[in-house]
Structure formats: C-alpha cells, structure tokens
Write a structure and sequence with these properties.
- This protein is mostly helical.
- The chain has a domain at about 5-90: Glutaredoxin.
- It has helices at about 5-25, 40-45, 70-75, 95-120, 125-145, and strands at about 50-55, 60-65.
- Strands 1-2 form a two-stranded antiparallel ribbon.
- β1 and β2 form a beta hairpin.
- The radius of gyration is 20 Å and the shape is elongated.
- Pfam families: Thioredoxin.
- Keywords: Disulfide bond, Electron transport, Endoplasmic reticulum, Membrane, Redox-active center, Signal, Transmembrane, Transmembrane helix, Transport.
- It is a single-pass membrane protein.
- It comes from Geococcyx californianus (Greater roadrunner).
- One of its GO terms (molecular function) is disulfide oxidoreductase activity.
Length: about 150
C-alpha cells in the first residue's frame, strides 16, 4: 500500500479487521508501505496498489479476488489459494532476478535522496543536479567500459 493511494485508504479498515481475525485463522497478516520499502516493492514487482500476496511455505500467490473481509477469510479457510497459480519462478520474490530488481529500487531511492540533498540542503539548482547525474552516468559508463 501507499499512504496517498485512495484504493488503499478505502480498503484499510477491511484489512485491519482481517489482521485482527488472523489469529483465529492461524495466519499472519501484514502490510508494507511501498514508499518506505522500495526494495520490497521491486522484489514483489508491485505495479498496482494495493497489491495482495498470499505466501505459504515459500510459495507466493497474488490475490486477485474481491476485497471484503468475508472473501479474505474464505480464501484462507476454504483454501481457495490452492486453485491460484503460484508466481512464476523467475518472478518469485526469492529469485535472483527479483533480488536484482530490489537493488535497482534501492539505487533509485538513493538517487532521489542525493538529488533532494543537492537541491534542498545545499541549494543547488535542479538543472545543475541533473547535470551532475548526467556526468556521473557518463563517467560510470566510461569506467565500466574500460
């Protein structure tokens, strides 16, 4: 979820109720703010919000059903997750490719922080910050090319 996402806000109370009921279902329910954890967003290949995953014994399935408390409970109690195709091996959050994707999301977060530092803290003009990143990209490319 993300704090600014209206669909996430509409579902928040239902999700909180589901989390409270989770102890009776013998499951753990959680939520991740993708603005605070961009690496997980990349690892799970989150492209829409809210995105819901079911994980059991290291097998991940994306939940695409209705988003009511009863449907969440039925998904677990009636083991409806068994009829859902698991996430493909190369897209699994534990795969090497998704580890790399998470790393790219972390790098983009660092770049954003550096840009904010340059423009906000140091007072450098936005276009100068862009020029610094362009120059750094070219230099890194030349270095790697050697």
């Amino acid at each position: 979820y993300a704090p600014w996402c209206s669909a996430c806000q509409q579902m928040e109370m239902t999700w909180e109720n589901f989390a409270r009921e989770s102890e009776h279902l013998y499951i753990t329910v959680g939520k991740v703010d993708v603005t605070q954890e961009p690496g997980l967003s990349g690892r799970f290949f989150v492209t829409t919000l809210p995105t819901i995953y079911h994980a059991n014994d290291g097998v991940f399935r994306r939940y695409l059903g209705s988003r009511t408390l009863e449907d969440f409970q039925d998904y677990v109690l009636e083991r409806k997750w068994e009829t859902v195709e698991p996430v493909a091996g190369w897209k699994s959050p534990s795969s090497l490719m998704m580890h790399g994707m998470a790393g790219l999301f972390h790098i983009s977060g660092w770049i954003r922080q550096i840009h904010s530092y340059l423009t906000g803290t140091l007072g450098i003009h936005v276009w100068i910050s862009y020029a610094i990143f362009i120059l750094a990209t070219l230099l890194i490319g030349l270095f790697l090319g050697l």
